[in-house]
Structure formats: C-alpha cells, structure tokens
Amino acid sequence: MLTVLAVPAFEDNYLWLVHDGQHAAVVDPGDAQPILDALATNGLSLVAILLTHHHADHIGGVSRLLQHARVPVFGPAHENIPAITRPLVEGDCAVVPELGLSLSVLDVPGHTRGHIAYVGAEQGWLFCGDTLFAGGCGRLFEGTPAQMTVSLAKLAALPDDTQVYCAHEYTLSNLRFALAVEPGNTELQARMVREQAKRARNEPTVPTSIGLEKSTNPFLRYREPTIIARLIEENRLTISEPIPTFAALREWKNVYR
Ligand code: ZN
Ligand code: FE
After folding, report:
1. Is there a catalytic annotation at residue 111?
2. Which of these, 88, 188, 199, 211, is most buried using a 10 Å CB contact count?
3. From the CA of 138, how far away is ligand 1's center (Å)?
C-alpha cells in the first residue's frame, strides 16, 4: 500500500514523497532539508528521485540528497539536468522496484521545453510539476501556447478521478482569476468557497482531480463560448480560434492582480 505525502518547501512548493512505510521516492525535491526531515520523521529510506523539469525549485535538493543516498534520478531526457541517470521520454516508464511502482511518462512541453509528467495508471496518480495547477497552468517560459494546449489535453484525457499532484499551492490566486474569466460557473464558485476554507485551516488544496479541473480550470475550458466571449469583451481577443484564445487567457493571467 503506497501513500503520497505532501512536503511543503519554500513559499508555496509541494515536494511529493511516495512511500510504503519503509522506502520512499521523491518527486521534484527543490530543497533537501524538508525531505531529509520527512524521511527521518517517518523512518523511510530514499530509493529514487523523480524530476519533472529543470527549474531550481524542483531540482535544487538533488545533489544533497544524493550525498545521503545513491539512488537513481529519473528525469526529462530533453532538459539539461546533469544529475539524471535515467533519462525519460514519452512512452517510457519510471520503475521503482522497492515500491512496486511503475509510472508512465508523458511529454508535456510548455512551461519548459522538455517538461515531463508521471502517470500512475494503477493508482490514479498524476505528478505534473508546473504544467497543470489546481485552477490554473504553468507560465510559458520556454514553450508556445500551441504546445501547452497539446500538453494540457494529454492530462485532461486521463480519467476524471485521477489525483493531480502539482508542485505549487497557487490555487486561491488561480481561482480568483478563473472567476474573473467565468463569473457564472457555479461549480467554480462552490470550489472557491471550499478551497478558501481549506487554506483558512492551513490545509493544502492539492491534490486536485482531473474531473474538478475540467469543470473549473479556465486553461482546460478555453473552448467554452462564454470564455471566448469574455476575452473578446475584455479586448484581449479578436478571433475565436482555440490557440489564440488560450494564448490570450495565459497573457491575461500573467498581468491579472
Ligand atoms: Zn517551474
Ligand atoms: Fe515551480
């Protein structure tokens, strides 16, 4: 029986620890100390490191963790991360025998050029780094809007009950923007109330689920006529084509306060 533990780090990152009570694999250890603490507290030994993309808040703890345990480092083949010992592309699997865990890999470029995501089909898990967030999506630092729409479509095609383990607690700010985009979405309104209550209790709002994202996340809903109309009304869009709509939505979010 595997458990996924959220290990908070920095301002708003979540590092994910997958464990069986004895062994643990960590996803995106941006910092080593919180992971070393969590391993010690729970009596776990590290057996693998999995990386989604090259940003420092996702890989910054790797070298120190490797000083404590010489473990395989899975990560994107198309990004320059020297610590990676098991480079992965879409269709590959990250296998962690100690945990009986096999995660399949999707290429999800957009936030960065070589970003990958890990899918645990058996468990219904998705580790998607900074691609899909609860109520939002990652900024397009290296990829194009067209690439990001393809990447997000791959994630949206997963079963609705898939648990989405994204790497940041950005949910309330994302949902504020989502409500500006879709003020009439009643599921979104209800979600905002629920997520605000979780934050008020200092609880994470993640994992989220693919089904919830499909009904409330504007970056999976940019084909909705009401969203297109809203962007035109805001003078952020002139043609109602999917890619320009997605691009206009992402640009609006970049400046939304
Ligand atoms: Zn990032
Ligand atoms: Fe990040």
Report:
1. yes
2. 88
3. 7
All residues at 6 or more sequence positions from 115 whose CB lies less than 8 Å from its CB, including other chains: 52, 53, 76, 79, 107, 108, 109, 129, 130, 131, 138, 143, 151
Overall number of domains in the chain: 1
Name the DSSP letter for residue 115. -
| Averaged pLDDT in 10-residue chunks for the chain of 257 residues | 97 98 98 98 98 98 98 98 98 98 98 98 98 98 98 98 98 98 98 98 98 99 98 96 98 96
Q: Which pLDDT score is estimated for 239?
A: 93
> What span, in angstroms and rounded, lies between the C-alpha atoms of 94 and 234?
44
Task: For 117-160, write each residue's pLDDT tens digit.
Answer: 999 999 999 999 999 999 999 999 999 999 999 999 999 999 99
The closest ligand to the CA of 112 turns out to be: 1
CATH of the domain at 7: 3.60.15.10
Q: Which of 53, 54, 107, 115 is catalytic?
A: 53
Which residue is catalytic, options 19, 54, 55, 115?
55
Reply yes or no on whether 168 is catalytic: yes
Range of the domain at 97: 3-255
Taking Cα atoms as reference points, which of 248, 234, 124, 135 lies closest to residue 187? 135
- pLDDT at site 171: 98
**Annotated catalytic, 58?**
yes
Cα of 53 from ligand 1 centre, angstroms = 7
